[in-house]
């Protein structure tokens, strides 16, 4: 019987990390979906060296459960959440109950690595199977995916974005070449591709044309929202107004604009300046941003960096904010935007095609280069009696978030009916 074989290489490599990235969330959602299928219908695999090898389902299940619990509730920094609440004048959050030992997911990942090495000579997929890869990881090694096709299995790749190719100036040196190789692997060996947005699908088709490849069928399936990001989630009850920007601190995310805006706000408002909370790790090519964060007195007084928040604390933080600020220059999807709207939180975002596709008029869109417009938005949204913010809240509450069930329905032809 034909099976769907899900590649969980990324989850195994990320098991020691305390919180999930957007791509982590996607692979985790696929893993939970595959585990809900009958054993004869869904299996698991990982890439080891130049081969894709099978993984024992009876070991993958407990590993995924431990990782899910760790990222949602128990493995992140509750102390950081309490410090942030104190800074914002909010009650300390309850400590999340542990569902498993903090290192349980990492320990189980090590066992899976061992199982993969023992299975190194066994094929991960057979003729008629559909091998599904949803994270970009290892796509810069064409050999494992060529081997899957030689075995007679179909190959489906979920593409998140082509930003390193379209905007190489925002990434690490050499990342554009690596991403070209990833996308070429997907085009050369994939029998179907899943795009997380119409914008990504268009970029993918354009890249195929650019390099002279015939793209396989491309299915557009927007990403789902995790169950913790819902309108009934509690909000952080902060005494002081604050805004949130969520994402790795890297040039593409345009944190520099926000920091210049906040320095201007501090000059105008002094102690009444709202707090800006930056949720995300420091990335690359950030010298000026880091200088502002570490050396500018006005920024140090009114901007907070935080990492490793449990999902429950992150949802409360976003829902209690005056707005989520999302001034990116480029996005393939924009999961934080969808999560904020699902919580009923207002969003001020760049005027990007992907954001228009996800949210339509549910968000207020501004030019990512228009500093005065972002400054005025912050002033207006910080006002407790702001009609501008009240209208944005009403728009957010009218947002109908896509669920993972809808994603899998749209992608079913590419995933073997997962």
UniProtKB/TrEMBL annotation:
Alphabetized UniProt keyword annotations: Transferase
Domain of life: Bacteria
Sequence ranges assigned to domain Glycosyl transferase family in this UniProt record: 234-363
CDD domains, per the entry: GT4_MtfB-like
One Pfam family matching this protein: Glycos_transf_1
GO molecular function: glycosyltransferase activity
InterPro entries: Glyco_trans_1
SUPFAM superfamilies per the UniProt record, alphabetical: UDP-Glycosyltransferase/glycogen phosphorylase
Protein name: Capsular polysaccharide glycosyltransferase biosynthesis protein
Annotated source species: Hansschlegelia plantiphila
Gene giving rise to this polypeptide: wcbB
């Amino acid at each position: 019987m034909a099976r769907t074989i899900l590649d969980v290489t990324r989850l195994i490599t990320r098991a020691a990390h305390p919180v999930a990235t957007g791509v982590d969330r996607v692979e985790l959602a696929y893993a939970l979906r595959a585990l809900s299928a009958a054993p004869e219908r869904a299996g698991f695999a990982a890439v080891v060296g130049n081969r894709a090898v099978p993984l024992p389902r009876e070991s993958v299940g407990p590993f995924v459960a431990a990782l899910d619990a760790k990222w949602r509730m128990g493995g992140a920094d509750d102390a950081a959440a309490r410090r942030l609440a104190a800074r914002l004048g909010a009650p300390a959050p309850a400590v999340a109950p542990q569902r498993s030992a903090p290192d349980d997911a990492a320990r189980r990942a090590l066992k899976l690595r061992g199982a993969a090495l023992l299975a190194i000579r066994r094929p991960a997929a057979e003729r008629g199977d559909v091998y599904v890869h949803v994270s970009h990881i290892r796509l810069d090694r064409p050999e494992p995916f060529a081997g899957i096709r030689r075995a007679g299995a179909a190959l489906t790749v979920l593409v998140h974005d082509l930003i390193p190719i379209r905007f190489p100036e925002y990434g690490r040196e050499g990342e554009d070449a690596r991403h070209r190789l990833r996308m070429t692997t997907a085009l050369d060996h994939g029998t179907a591709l899943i795009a997380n947005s119409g914008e990504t699908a268009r970029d993918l088709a354009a890249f195929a044309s650019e390099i002279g490849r015939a793209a396989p069928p491309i299915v557009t399936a927007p990403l789902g929202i995790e169950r913790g990001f819902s309108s009934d989630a509690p909000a952080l009850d902060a005494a002081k107004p604050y805004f949130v920007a969520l994402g790795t601190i890297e040039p593409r995310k345009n944190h520099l604009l926000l920091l210049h805006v906040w320095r201007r706000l501090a000059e105008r408002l002094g102690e009444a300046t709202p707090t800006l909370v930056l949720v995300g790790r420091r990335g690359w090519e950030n010298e000026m941003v880091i200088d502002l964060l570490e050396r500018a007195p006005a920024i140090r007084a009114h901007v907070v960096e935080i990492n490793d928040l449990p999902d429950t604390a992150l949802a409360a933080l976003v829902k209690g904010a005056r707005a989520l600020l999302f001034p990116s220059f480029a996005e393939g999807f924009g999961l934080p935007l969808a999560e904020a709207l699902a919580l009923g939180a207002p969003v001020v975002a760049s005027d990007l095609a992907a954001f228009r596709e996800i949210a339509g008029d549910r968000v207020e869109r501004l030019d990512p280069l228009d500093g005065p417009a972002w400054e005025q938005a912050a002033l207006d949204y910080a006002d407790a009696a702001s009609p501008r913010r009240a209208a944005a809240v009403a728009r957010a509450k009218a947002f109908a978030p896509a669920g993972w069930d809808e994603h899998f329905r749209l992608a079913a032809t590419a995933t073997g009916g997962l």
